[in-house]
Amino acid sequence: MTKTPLPRIGLTLGDVAGIGPEVTARAICDAQVRATCQPIVIGHPRILNEALELIRPHVASVPPVQEIHSLKEIDTNDSPIYCFNPAGDEVLAAPRNQFNAAAGKASYDYLLAAIRGAQAGTIDGITTAPLAKASLHLAGINYPGHTEILAKECGVDEFAMMLYLPPGEQVRGINGLAVSHVTLHTSIKSVPDLLSVDSIYGKIGLTYRFMQAQGVVDPRIAVCALNPHGGEEGLFGNEESELIAPAIERAREEFGTSVTGPFPTDTMMKRAIRDGEFDGVVAMYHDQGHIAIKLVAFDTAVNVTLGLPIVRTSPSHGTAYDIAWQGTARADGMITAIQVAANLAKIN
């Protein structure tokens, strides 16, 4: 009987000055990860091996690493951890634990190579270790983060960052919880001007369809208000009545009455996380969605980019320069992100 190949998931090292190499190294040493997918590391093999040596005393075993010069060299019947370096050796001189252009440029090159591999079908999905936006900018790469680069390179206009908690002890709902964002890497003062009925409606649709892909027949989607107390009948703002409510009504025409809101965010997040009333939440801005999720699942929440033609996940944490290269970084988020990517790759 022929064994079905595991999904090939490309793991970018991210910003090598941070914890990206360490959490990637810990992840490829995890037996559950290797049982779920075939991990392929995209980054410099010398940096990967350095991270593996750093964590060797703390893991049961370290798999062999084999450098390849193209993602086309991947053999799905082989057992080593493949490592593909698309960025040259300049990154080896990058300082650790601080923003720098060399690390920023390499993290960008790793991501582009992963995107190209997923588009070509040589890998089945991507899990990205964290990069530093300031290092990208020092390298002259003016994107606010992974999500926007992925959208640009994939040629999509309708996309969203979503934080996903798979079913488990951190969230009461049996289907887990998906929290997507209408706006993302922008200032608070610019958020109201960036909201529109179309943009809110689009994010509701992306969230609803994602949860359907997870096997939820009729996902319960709650939509956040923008203003305190849901705007208090216009006393604190009119975005709820002029933008958010019309978007919800439009979504209900397409998806049904399981789309509800707008709700004041403070109580709605309690209802979603602790009471399990909702399968998905649509937040209006970055911190509105992030704070609640990171409070209950900082180490295990998974960032999923919605709207792409390829699979992409990442842990929800950042580069953590303060603890990088000390052998203490936890890889729970990276491991969960890889497992989610593998499951999404099977669905796709």
TrEMBL record:
Its EC number is 1.1.1.262. One of its GO terms (molecular function) is 4-hydroxythreonine-4-phosphate dehydrogenase activity. Gene3D superfamilies: Isopropylmalate Dehydrogenase. Signal peptide: none annotated. The keyword Membrane does not apply. Keywords: Metal-binding, NAD, Oxidoreductase. Pfam families: PdxA. It comes from the Bacteria. It is an enzyme of class 1 (oxidoreductase). InterPro entries: PdxA_fam. SUPFAM superfamilies: Isocitrate/Isopropylmalate dehydrogenase-like. This is 4-hydroxythreonine-4-phosphate dehydrogenase. The gene is pdxA.
